[in-house]
Every structure is written in structure tokens, then in C-alpha cells.
Amino acid sequence: MARAEIEGGVIATPVPITAGESVHIIYTGLLSEKGADRVYLHAGYGPNHDWSRVHDYEMTRSKWGWEAVIDIEDKGRFNFCFRDSANNWDNNNGRNWSYQVHNGRLS
To answer: CATH says 2-101 is which class?
Structure first.
């Protein structure tokens, strides 16, 4: 099981992200640094600026940061960013965070 750390205080594991499996996201970025009392993972599938199946997941605070485990339900791209309870956003300077979802086959 691989672990990837992405710029902006985001860790995702396992990588590659695979359809039908779960991904564990840990966030220690800007909102966490600014003392957010709640953080939500805002996620969807598709091209970076045209997401579908968008959902907000409330994250849990831990000693590692803010955490959420998400079931990957779609193929294509998995995109996400973060917001806090005051509606402040961390979208990686407009780029969001994004992974190509693996189909689970070796070839």
C-alpha cells in the first residue's frame, strides 16, 4: 500500500486510488493552520472544472490533522478541496487536488 503526500498539507493513501475501494485523506493545510473548528472535504468526479457526484464529507480531527475515509464510487478523476465551518475554502490556489482513479485491473 503506497502513501502519497501532496503539496498543501494533504496526504492520501492508498495510491493509486482505485474504483470500488476507499481512500484515506489527511488534511493539515491552510484551514487547519488557521484554527478551523470544522473542516469538510468537498469532493466530486470528472474534469477539474466540471465535477459531478459532488458531496461534502465532514472530517474528523485527530493528532495527524483532519481525516476522512471516502469510498471511491466512480471512474475517471477524483477531485477535492476543503472548506471550514465559516465557509473559507482551500482549493490549492484554484487547482484543487486531483487523482486519476485506477480501474483495479493490472493492464
So the answer is: mainly beta
Amino acid at 59: M
| 60, amino acid identity | T
What are the tens digits of pLDDT across the range 23-58?
A: 999 999 999 999 999 999 999 999 988 999 999 999
If you search the block for the grid coordinates 490556489, which residue do you land on? 93
pLDDT tens digits for 10-22? 999 999 999 999 9
User: Can you tell me whether residue 21 is helix, strand or coil?
Assistant: coil
Query: CA Rg, the chain, in Å?
Result: 13
Distance, CA of 79 to CA of 89 (rounded, Å):
14
**Position 23: which residue type?**
V
Residues 6 or more apart whose CB falls under 8 angstroms from that of 19 comprise 72, 73, 74, 75, 101, 102, 103, 104
Cα 66–chain centre separation: 11
| Grid cell for residue 86 | 465559516
pLDDT of residue 48: 81
